[in-house]
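User: I've been trying to design a sequence by hand for this structure and keep getting stuck. Would you show me what you'd pick, starting by listing the structure so we're on the same page?

Assistant: Good idea, let's start from the same input. This is the structure you sent:
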């Protein structure tokens, strides 16, 4: 089993994740399966959205790799429907799309996608994305389970506390005296069996903010002779505040006058604390999910960092949130901060803590979390206290951030001018957020690397096209002279040459001819993008017939049979469509076995591609052009190779060619917004499949 550099799948190996792959292209599914199985994941494949929904319901996969553009049900619709299934809203969805515009990205996220990756797929990037999404989802699920356990514990605690802290009281309305049981008296903070002289004395123990409500509820109960149920706070003699739940029942004499009220009270302070903590946990869980989504949605480092400090400061209600990037010598720079008014701003500053030597650096490398509730009473070195005083820090919480398992920096929360007790939940939450930041930074770096590679590839292609054009032009003149003088030599002195001389001359002319073909192919390849024609309606049947007419001699020489079915009319470059058919049909006739070559040319319209009643349906519709033969075929492990420049699977002595034809076909298909692939087995023929959009904007 192998993994990408920087990936540690130990925690995932213990319970190998199940990956659901959803793609209508068989070859793409195969590639995705291999990429996932290489890192030890289990894989299930489906070919459309409806199958995906059924598979999800039955298997509950850990992550879904979902193709955006599929027939029957596209990935966006499938993603939305997955959200409605049990657990579907918690299962990460990685959308795979060839669309890179912002509207498509927004559409993917709106449909419920957790992340997206564009085609052509960079396999190392894909594996990193899947791994990070699985890590993040497991962290989120762990937090959700902790919250649920806290909710269950709170319910059990409520039952226990209610039974333990219940006391009785009796209020004589005529004498205005209230008598409490021992527990009831303790609940409101008075001496055991003490009698409060007046009702007013009782209400004075009620918290001022709750007093008016309590008095109103009791007055209404007496006036209407009904029971009451109320929760309020009381202040004990020591100044502590406690929550009380009280229930009362009114008794009347024979004339209907209220003369007595009895009831129970309970100290529900612990329950209220648990409820408040649960509410905070639920809120923080939601905030964590929101922050994770905001961080994960952005792929730009600057935006990720600013979102992080803003949301962390809001989440913890701290005075300052800081992202500090570490350098190798232990110094670092404050990249981003969110600070409340009154605290010194430190963003952009290069800082070096004099106490921060290798010992502390090693602790952070090992994942150590540092916090101080009060730097003046904590066991801190004086040099560190002096360092923090510069920035008004009294309490701090420091969590390391790792990118690809290397220490990148620190996520820091500061409390200025006052101590602060950091709860275990806050520490754990900040650690989980730092993990999300690391994931987001890793993804952003991968995107930057991918973008840079694309730019370098674009520049390299431009330089290659320029080189091919210049080199081809410069080679044409000496080649023409070689051919011209070779022809003259053969015409004027051929009869005077001995057999060996004629052999040399023929080899020279053959080599010159091959070089001419190679130069022509190079020029064709370089001109596909630079000297292309605007798209216009092209009848592919007519194009194929013209190509077959040009290949008439080759067809006769091979005794070949070509069956041409009706092909569609599409928006395309007519010259390039002719080049495409010329190469594919020519190859089908050339790479044949001893039997008569048979070539079938037919097409399919992907009807289900379009959305019903959609004005954009024609723009989204595709056609498949299939060129199928009974030739020598090839091993599909060479599939990627055959579409590259100068790649050949056979010796030139066996089959002629420069190894440029299929590379030209791929470039033509991509220039038209389509793709080309093939299926084959050795000695069992080959089937080349070209997917092309039927409609284009005329300016393409």
């Amino acid at each position: 089993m192998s993994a990408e550099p920087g990936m540690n799948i130990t925690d995932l190996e213990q319970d190998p994740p199940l990956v659901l792959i959803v793609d209508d292209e068989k070859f793409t599914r195969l590639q995705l399966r291999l990429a996932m199985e290489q890192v030890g994941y289990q894989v299930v494949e489906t070919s459309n959205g409806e199958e995906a929904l059924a598979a999800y319901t039955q298997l509950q996969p850990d992550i879904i790799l979902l193709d955006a553009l599929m027939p029957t049900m596209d990935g966006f619709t499938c993603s939305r429907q997955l959200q409605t299934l049990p657990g579907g809203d918690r299962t990460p969805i990685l959308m795979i799309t060839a669309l890179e515009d912002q509207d498509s990205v927004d559409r993917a996220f709106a449909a419920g996608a957790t992340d997206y990756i564009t085609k052509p797929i960079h396999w190392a990037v894909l594996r990193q994305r899947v791994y990070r999404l699985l890590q993040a989802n497991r962290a989120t699920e762990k937090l959700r389970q902790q919250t649920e356990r806290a909710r269950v514990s709170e319910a059990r605690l409520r039952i226990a506390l209610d039974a333990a802290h219940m006391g009785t009281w009796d209020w004589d309305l005529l004498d205005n005296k209230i008598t409490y049981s021992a527990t009831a008296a303790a609940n409101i903070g008075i001496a055991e069996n003490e009698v409060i002289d007046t009702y007013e004395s009782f209400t004075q123990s009620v918290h001022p903010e709750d007093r008016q409500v309590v008095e109103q509820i009791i007055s209404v109960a007496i006036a209407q002779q009904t029971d009451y149920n109320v929760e309020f706070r009381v202040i004990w003699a020591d100044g502590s505040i406690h929550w009380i739940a009280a229930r009362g029942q009114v008794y009347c004499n024979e004339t209907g006058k209220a003369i007595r009220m009895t009831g129970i009270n309970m100290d529900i302070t612990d329950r209220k604390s648990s409820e408040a903590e649960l509410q905070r946990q639920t809120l923080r869980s939601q905030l964590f999910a929101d922050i994770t989504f905001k961080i994960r949605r952005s792929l730009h480092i600057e935006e990720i960092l600013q979102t992080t400090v803003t949301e962390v400061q809001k989440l913890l209600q701290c005075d300052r949130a800081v992202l500090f990037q570490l350098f190798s010598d232990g110094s670092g720079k404050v990249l981003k901060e969110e600070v409340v008014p009154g605290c010194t701003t430190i963003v952009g500053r290069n800082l070096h803590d004099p106490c921060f030597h290798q010992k502390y650096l090693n602790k952070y490398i090992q994942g150590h979390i540092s916090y101080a509730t009060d730097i003046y009473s904590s066991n801190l070195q004086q040099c560190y206290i002096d360092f923090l005083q510069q920035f008004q820090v009294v309490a701090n919480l420091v969590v390391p951030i790792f990118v690809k398992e290397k220490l990148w920096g620190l996520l820091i929360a500061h409390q200025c001018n006052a101590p602060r007790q950091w709860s275990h939940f806050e520490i754990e939450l900040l650690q989980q957020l730092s993990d999300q930041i690391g994931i987001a930074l890793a993804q952003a770096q991968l995107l930057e690397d991918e973008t840079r590679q694309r730019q370098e590839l674009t520049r390299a292609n431009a330089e290659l096209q320029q080189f091919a054009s210049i080199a081809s032009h410069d080679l044409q003149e000496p080649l023409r002279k070689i051919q011209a003088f070779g022809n003259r030599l053969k015409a004027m002195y051929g009869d005077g040459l001995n057999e060996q001389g004629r052999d040399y001359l023929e080899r020279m002319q053959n080599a010159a001819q091959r070089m001419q073909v190679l130069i022509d192919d190079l020029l064709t390849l370089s001109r596909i993008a630079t000297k292309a024609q605007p798209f216009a309606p092209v009848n592919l049947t007519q194009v194929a017939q013209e190509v077959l007419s040009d290949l008439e001699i080759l067809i006769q020489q091979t005794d070949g049979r070509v069956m041409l079915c009706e092909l569609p009319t599409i928006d395309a470059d007519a010259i390039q469509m002719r080049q495409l058919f010329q190469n594919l049909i020519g190859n089908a006739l050339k790479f044949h076995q001893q039997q008569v070559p048979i070539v079938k040319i037919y097409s399919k319209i992907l009807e289900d591609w379009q959305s019903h009643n959609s004005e954009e349906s024609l723009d989204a519709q595709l056609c498949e052009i299939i060129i199928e033969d009974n030739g020598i075929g090839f091993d599909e492990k060479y599939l990627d190779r055959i579409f590259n420049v100068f790649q050949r699977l056979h010796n030139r002595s066996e089959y002629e060619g420069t190894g440029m034809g299929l590379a030209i076909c791929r470039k033509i298909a991509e220039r038209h917004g389509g793709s080309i692939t093939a299926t084959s087995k050795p000695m069992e023929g080959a089937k080349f499949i070209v997917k092309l959009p039927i409609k284009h904007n005329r300016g393409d």
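That's my pick for every position. To get oriented when you compare it with your attempt: The first strand starts at residue 18 and ends at 22. The CA atoms of residues 226 and 250 lie 6 Å apart.
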